[in-house]
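Appendix B. Raw example, untouched.
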Amino acid sequence: MTVDGLDLRAWVVRDLGEPARETARGAWWCCPFHQDKTPSFLVSQKPAERGRYHCFGCGADGDAIDYVRRRQNCGYGDALAALGLTDDGSERAPVVRREPEPERLTAPCGVWQDRGIAIVAACRAALWMPEGARALDWLRGRRGLSDDVIGMAALGYNAHDRHDDRAAWGLAPELDDHGRPRRVWLPSGVVIPWEFGGELWRVNVRPLDKKDYKGPAGFGNGLYGADALLCDLPAVILEGELDALTVKQCAGDLVTPVATGGTGGSRRVKWLARLAACARVLVAFDSDEAGDEAAQYWLGALPNAARWRAPWGKDANELATAGGDVRAWIAAGLE
């Protein structure tokens, strides 16, 4: 159902901050539904498309109700209530425009975790089998990760696309724009699990031939690597998991690396509180315009934070694979 008249753009601004750019077509953000390094999430301003969003990276598409349901992991009725609509969606509540509620600061439901854990285990085993040889070579040769770090991070390999029923992940059924049941897609690629407190919060997949990260719907808004944060050790915030693993491999005794999974991820009190307790925080988002803009949020939210760009690489992993000294870069940031 398209909700006419609701200001979807204002809702997205309250959720993600100001858009990265605006064009005649509409406002653009980095997509909140996958790890997006360049703004590919559009809230259209065209009259025929007003009140709808579309991501040109992961294909997410819908109206205000779809957006609230996905961001808050809630049902249709709860989304209507959050939007200030009656139960049948036919009328808007008068005067009051309700703010989006914060995302749940918990891991996904038990069914989601059970399915995710089973897939992560299978993919982890597959990485070290003949079918995973190409992915293992990519992690070692193209990304410069050691076998110890690959094993510690429980990285795996999904050889073929998986399309599951939403019920298999504990998710409510949904229909796409063509009236067909939506399915949960796990593409082929390197599988990266996000764990915190003994629970699985997210499963990201990095295709070997593409830069975009994708993962199954219904994940929690976590902070990759947060379990390792210590009060007496500085932290470094990066965008991607592979960047965090690179820093851990090169300078894990100097800092605790964490990753937000994109420029708009992890902006929740649960993670702010843990980072604020660290001795110092380096905000090492990518050395580009999107990274600089996103870093401003963390600099404003954390009194112990400082911006620290990779000197001649876009991110930590690019710096390492280009022959740069990641350890020296981190040490200089701590001086």
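End of appendix B.
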